[in-house]
Amino acid sequence: MTRTMVLLLVLHGLLLALLGMVLGFPLQRVITSADTAQAQLAWRSSHTTLVTGGTLYIAVAAVGHHLVLGTRAARFATGSLVLASYLFAAVLTAGPLLGARGLEPVGPPSHVAVHVGFLAAIALLFAGLAPILWGACSAIARMGRA
Questions:
Q1: What is the pTM of this model?
Q2: Are 121 and 81 in contact (CB under 8 A)?
Q3: How far apart are CA 6 and CA 11, in angstroms?
Q4: Each residue of 57-73: b (16+ CB within 10 Å) or e?
């Protein structure tokens, strides 16, 4: 991975983690109010998922220079992960605000949109992590030959 790609992952990882931390404020509000357990779960999921996702991106960036990846594969992985970060940020913020769990494509159009957003974000995450896994395996194989 190039230095620019690594820094993009760090930047977007930090933005995800920061948004997750900010979403701790509504979580604190629903915990201390008479809100439902479902509302608490939604905000807790958003808070922890975004902080964890940001941490994952920073971890991938930290080992990016060790991966054995072609330029196209590295660019694809970086682009997929960056796009996934925006989708996750959007749906993990919109879901609790709308009361949409996103587990099924049912209900008002906003709930269906949250569901579709989750599916797209998850697909992009897996698509972006596949070349990273390949690059790690390639690096290990190259070490074995040396």
A1: 0.89
A2: no
A3: 9
A4: bbebbeebeebbbeeeb
